[in-house]
Amino acid sequence: MEEKSNMLKPDEKKETEKDPVPPDGGIMAWMVMLSSFLCNGIIFGIINTFGILFVKLRGDLEAANVEDAAFKCSIVGSLTIGSTFFLSFLVGMIADKIGLRLTAFIGGVLATVGMAISSFFYNRIEVLYFSYGLLFGTGSSLAYTPSLTILGHYFRRHMGLVNGVVTAGSSIFTIGLSFVNQYVLEKHGLQACLLMFTGLTSILVLCSFTFVPVLASGQQPSKQRSGSKVRELAEKLIYLDNWRNKRYVIWALAIPSALFGYFVPYVHLVQFAKNVPLDEDDFVNGEKASSLVACIGITSGLGRLIFGKLADYDKIKRNGNRIILQQVAFVSIGLCTMLLTAAKFFGDFTYQALMFFCCLMGLFDGCFITMLGPIAFDICGPAGAGQGIGFLLAMCSIPLTVGPPIAGWIYDNVGNYFGAFIGAGIPPLLGAALMCFVRRFPQQPDPSTAEEDEKHDDEKTKTLLPAEA
Questions:
Q1: Pick from 130, 114, 84, 124: which is nearest to 390 by CA?
Q2: Residue 445's pLDDT is what?
Q3: In contact, 234 and 49? CB cutoff 8 Å
Q4: Helix, coil or strand: residue 376
Q5: Number of CB atoms found within 10 A of residue 288's CB
Q6: Quick one: which H or E segment has residue 183?
Q7: pLDDT, tens only, 221-249
Q8: 199-203 contacts at long range (C-beta below 8 A, 24 or more positions apart)
Q9: Are 251 and 438 in contact (CB under 8 A)?
Q10: DSSP states of 122-163 as a string?
Q11: What are the C-alpha distances in Å from 143 to residues 40, 92, 243, 313, 468?
Q12: Residue range 350-377: mean pLDDT, rounded
């Protein structure tokens, strides 16, 4: 009897060593989803509406006779989005070491401190480079990446829809802040707006407390010493299986290639629209220009929900077709960015044309953003998804940082945004073309997903069979 019990121990041990299955529901799962929703909303609501602050900052610098005002102001927004994404690869490794919750907590504190400093030195562009651009950006990175990674610990079957709901947070906050920012700036000034941002970023600290992982982290099993200390260190810090995966390598190169012009409309759209102009009254002209950012936010939110739900269908989820959705999104974003320059040819309907192009751009922006998390889990699996997202966002930081200042430099030297917006529309088309090579390599099935699907099919079969007597 004792011998039989010993023979069962390896199987029992194997069973206990299996990673727990994401609950796909429950109070804790919904709390995590809400916290991630707030993280995405606050961080990208502030980042996406920087174009409204850009007009105020540029006006103040030009009033002080500062040269290249558009270029210098756009650096603040570029540093923010650039540092948010660039540090993501470090965030993935840090989170593997100290945990998602502590990483996000530190991020919330840094983001709040950065905004607080910005509110005291709102009239010093050099200080804003550090406080708004780097400190807030660093804190945002530490909070944002865990907010995406944690979703895979609590959801599996409805991963696409949950990502859609969470990333829709940025759309909802973008819509709200596009109106609130304009009002606060007009009535109370830049300092009051930055103080409001300080209060919002403090919520990130509270959200971090819910980020409790339930799946195994991306730690790799110990291997025999390779003789190279550098290699051993790399294996401890980096989930190298991602970089042995050709599908991930191609995807991680194609996405940044598409993003050189992605952030240009978010920074320069309001100024571009005001220059058209959309109304003879300066205040009304500013209101209409700011409303275009809200149009992007509204349809981006709808796109995240629609395409998030669409991504959960088996024919799309199992065949790697989520990447095709992302390709369609990039083509649409690129074309819409270039078509913004043609709006003036619509005469009295210029404003309506801009609204249409912005709404279409927002819809497919929602598709692109929503697919990031699910595709990372498809290609890298749960163990590598955290670092997969982190390294991808880090690589995206370069084009996102470079694009807006180049557009600002073109505007300062040419006097209009035509060349800047045409150039910004080309990279998304290039990125969509490069992503075609991902499908040349077969997708490796995720064992945990396959096991869960098999279990689901078995349960479905049992419900169709007659009950035993």
A1: 84
A2: 57
A3: no
A4: helix
A5: 20
A6: helix 159-187
A7: 444 554 567 777 777 777 888 888 899 99
A8: 200/42, 200/45, 200/46, 201/42, 201/46, 201/108, 201/111, 201/112, 201/114, 201/115, 201/136, 201/139, 202/108, 202/112, 203/38, 203/42, 203/108
A9: yes
A10: TT-HHHHIIIIIIIHHHHHHHHHHHHHHTHHHH-STTHHHHH
A11: 9, 11, 24, 30, 52
A12: 90
Cα(244)–Cα(224) distance, integer angstroms: 19
Angstrom distance (rounded) from CA 135 to CA 170: 20
434 vs 236: CA distance, rounded Å: 31
pLDDT band at 16 (very low <50, low <70, confident <90, very high): very low
Output the CA torsion 23→27→28→33 (10° steps): 90
Residue 362 has which token pair? 């927002």
Dihedral of alpha carbons 305, 262, 80, 410, sign: negative
Task: State pLDDT tens for residues 246-297.
Answer: 999 999 999 999 999 888 888 888 889 988 888 888 888 888 888 898 898 8
Q: Kindly state the tokens that stand for 33.
A: 């989803």
Taking the C-alpha atoms of residue 121 and residue 127, their distance in angstroms, rounded to an integer, is 7
Quote the radius of gyration of the chain (alpha carbons, Å): 24
Nearest-CA neighbor of 378 among 242, 219, 238, 258? 242
**Peptide bond preceding 277: is omega within 30 degrees of 0, i.e. cis?**
yes
Q: How far apart are CA 71 and CA 73, in angstroms?
A: 6
Mean of the per-residue pLDDT values for the chain? 82
Residues 6+ apart with CB under 8 A from 32: 150, 151, 153, 154, 210, 211, 212
**Which tens digits make up the pLDDT trace of 384-441?**
887 888 788 888 888 888 888 898 888 888 888 899 999 999 999 999 999 999 888 7
Instruction: Return the H-helix or E-strand segment holding 171.
Output: helix 159-187
Cα–Cα distance, 201 to 120 (Å, whole number): 16
Kindly tell me the burial class for residue 353, based on how many C-beta atoms sit within 10 Å of its own C-beta (0-12, 13-18, 19 or more).
middle
DSSP at 46: H
Indicate the pTM of the whole model.
0.71
Residue indicated by tokens 């007659």? 466
**C-alpha closest to that of 156 among 29, 285, 286:** 29
- Phi first, then psi, for residue 388 (nearest 5°) are -60, -45
pLDDT per residue over 337-346, tens digit each? 999 999 889 9
Q: What is the mean pLDDT of residues 23-29?
A: 80
Residue type, 290: S
Angle at 417 between CA 414 and CA 419, to 5 degrees: 75
Structure confidence by residue, pLDDT tens digits, 448-458: 445 544 554 44
DSSP 24: S
CB atoms within 10 A of CB 127: 15
- Please say if the pLDDT value at position 308 is more than 70: yes
